[in-house]
Amino acid sequence: xxxxxxxxISLWKFLFAIVIAFFHCxxxxxxxxxxxxxxxxxxVEFFFIxxxxxxAKKLIKEKYDTKNIVGETIKYxxxxxxxxxxxxxxxxxxxxxxxxxxxxxxxxxxxxNSIWNLFLLxxxxxxxxxxxPQLWYLTSMFISIFILYPIVKKYKEKFIAFISPLIxxxxxxxxxxxxxxLDHSYQIWSGFTRTGIIRGFIELNLGMIFYLIHLKLSKxxxxxxxxxxxxxxxxxxxxxxxxxxxxIDAPKYYDYIMLFFxxxxxxxxxxxxxxxxxxxxxxxxxxxxxxxxxxxxxxxFVINLIDYAPIFDQINPVNQSLLAVxxxxxxxxxxxxxxxxxxxxxVTYHLKKVFxxx
Length: 358
Description:
There is one protein chain. This protein has helices spanning 7-23, 43-61, 69-102, 108-113, 115-118, 136-155, 157-162, 164-178, 195-217, 224-247, 255-269, 277-280, 283-308, 317-344, 347-355. With 358 residues, it is mostly helical. Helix 6 (136-155) packs across helix 9 and helix 8 (164-178) packs across helix 9 (195-217). The longest helix is centred in the N-terminal third of the chain and has 34 residues, at 69-102. The radius of gyration is 21 Å and the shape is globular.
């Protein structure tokens, strides 16, 4: 029987993807403040923590096989990358076309070096041209999973209960000591990698800790009043995060408070005990969750198109932002449908047969 998905998490994934898109519209405003989520970078924390939660959920249930653990780890990550790669490739191609069309003097070396973005290697500082900078999140997530997958699968709760809290405390202390907030810490070179990978590694561990807490809380039976209180607290914390990152002038000073709010909210909404759980756990909300990643991958090239193309110059920045988000959503819906059709007819397999005997 297929496991029921948590539609509350699905809905918030979609909403936070929209928040990130609005945040990146800041380039429309030049020296003015972005009126839409100037602290929207904090939305990435939700994705990292939820990814850690589901990683722990998967690995704790599975048996550890010493002989196959390396191949299994690589296979798991490659499967996830290949699932996203068509979206990354399409966004990369559009980004290159837009840059070449509106900047024909783009240097050859800049064009060639952008290839590291396509293969999610820019975070290792391979002299890469900045194309689709938001993909640092995917690099961080996959590298963190590569490290954690075999360890957690073998040691399970022991690692999460004893080692993960130390990683979180020392890691957040390191980031907090060196940078005020989380907004720019992803792009700082730490000596061996950019700190975005460290940030993702910390927060995946945080998500795994929350899964252990979830296992305990899922056994608790709440009254109607208790469920009502959980519902208001969980949703209230996430709504308060949206308010802070949208209206506070210097949200970075509140980053770790926002991280705390997001953390408590994820513990609550993942408990499956809140009143909205059954209401939101339908196919529509799962569709929104699937749509969130294409929006995340596509929105930057759409923003660049609106920013570079003269036809949009007469539109004020607020309407440019709204237009960018709407186009990103529509483009992602169409793109996801086309890729689903190609997957249905197994186009990849037939192309593979042209070159390799199957």
